[in-house]
Write the structure tokens for this entry.
Amino acid sequence: MMLVVAAVAPASAAPPSPAWTALAPGAEHLHVDDGDIDLFRFDLTRFRADVAVPGAGGPMTAAELRRESGAALVVNGGFFDTNGRSLGLRVASGRQLIKLRAVVDWGVLVIRDGRADIVHSRDFAATAVAAPPVTAAIQVGPRILVDGKPPTLKPQAARRTAVALDQTGRFLTIVVARTRMEAGALARLLERLGFHRALMLDGGPSTQLSAELGAFKLDISGGYAVPDLLLLRPR
């Protein structure tokens, strides 16, 4: 009796995890060629996240605010109207400057005590009264990752700015796509990278970023100055 041994093809190896590059203690960078996307991951025990609303000083670009504030990174913030007024909640340095916008399907990026969270607008009030106090917040949308999975998103392409969190909320990642892409495509990328929650900031011509961490420098220009921004400084 002849014994036939079938050859078994080896299982396909899982694609390697992308390599993050350390820029400074508590700060890392990853570039993804598909979509020309830059991600900056910050340990919030080493970096402080805050919101800037220039107000009477008028809108600013990310590069202008980074130079003025000495921040490590500045990125554009949330939505605004045709008169340049921010739309939705803005909390900066522990002070609420603009109230929560009700009855919108947006999320809120909440920063407190070395941790970040992303909650639906309807859940923010319950979150806000809990200790420790909220030190920074931006209301915008949509949420593009909820409990690690993308929700249903409109198929619309634009340059993109987003924030993403791991499950603990200790690490805040800033995401900028320089080329036009659909929100769903960005959400699926962030899901593959292992993020747990993500929120779209304003996109299109608003998308802009300025970073300087050690020897690393990067400026991504937007179409115009914006009325509020998110910044990160070393603690």
User: Anything to note?
Assistant: The mean pLDDT is 92. Residues 105 and 220 are 29 Å apart (CA to CA). The longest helix spans residues 183-192. The longest strand covers residues 171-182.
